[in-house]
Amino acid sequence: MTPFERRTRRVQSRLTDSDADLLALSPGRSLYYLTGVDADPSDRLTLLLVPTEGDPTFVAPALEAERIAAATWVTDVRSWRDETGPAPVLDPLLADLSPARVLLADRMWAAVSLTLRERLPAASFGLASEVVTPIRRRKDEEELDALRAAAAAADATMRDVRSLGPDAVGRTEADLAEYIEERLESHGGTGIAFETIVAAGPNGADPHHTSGDRVIEAGDPVVLDFGTCVDGYVSDQTRTVVFDGDPPAAVEEVHSVVRKAQTAAVERVEPGVSTGAVDRAARSVIEAAGYGERFVHRTGHGAGLDVHEAPDVVAGGEVTLEPGMVFSVEPGIYLPDRFGVRIEDLVVVTADGAERLNRTDRGWRC
Ligand code: ZN
Ligand code: ZN
Questions:
Q1: What is the distance in A from the centroid of ligand 2 to the CA of 248?
Q2: Which of 72, 99, 145, 364 has the fewest CB atoms within 10 Å, counting from its CB?
Q3: What is the pLDDT averaged over residues 281-307?
């Protein structure tokens, strides 16, 4: 059994335990997770229909059907042609399944969702995350291997960037971002998992700064947050470094507070603990140092096929940690018009604690 089929069988058993009897997925990360089919949503209807028992069925445009059949373990691929539209394939299939409650992909296009609702007037509808998220948020061995490889590519890149030292001074943020993206590829990554952040000096105070034409100066704290993909799985880590010279006086203190907060949160990670408790571990260190108001985001987010997925590590979060969950721990302090500091690693919940996927130096000195 392939990992894709194994995941589908687990989702089916959740579906059986829920009050829904059909899962309908359009192209997206959850469709890939269950089938291995990597497709983009388009105006031509592509759907995976997963009943509680038996095998799933793909409905696919004739143009794509062969490619889909070759990529997946799902053997029932029913294709439709442009001149007829999907109705001759979809209608009998839905009549046969006659579901009472259907769970739709959370990011399905409204047009597809309305098509299904019109054809199933007696059914009720919910979100696929109800049954898929509890499975997707616990990574299996194949997924952990990919996440480790993506993290290793990011770590190797971070070492390259740090080793620039004074050579980074005088380059623009955008130029350094381009260098980072080239290094990520050369260390085995594919593309970028999200827009590369190089935020120098005051720009670091914006957690989602877009790398631009600011020139990196001696003494600038520079927030470096980037990621790549391996086999579809992301990496995401952040370091805040000073490439050369002495930073403003407050940087050393703020950096050490963030680093302590990050360590405290990672040390809190173990099965049975809530996501809210991990957030609290980081936030309480920052609050005690007087910067509570300047930690303006959640402590972390799940990571896997999506760079932001379940579970959220947020104040009051009630998800109970289980082995195999992967998320970021990334506290930060942002001082408007001055600078920002963020330190981020991905961690995996293990049987008795946490494994950090990112292992490079967390200090600010290059
Ligand atoms: Zn990040
Ligand atoms: Zn992140």
A1: 26
A2: 145
A3: 98
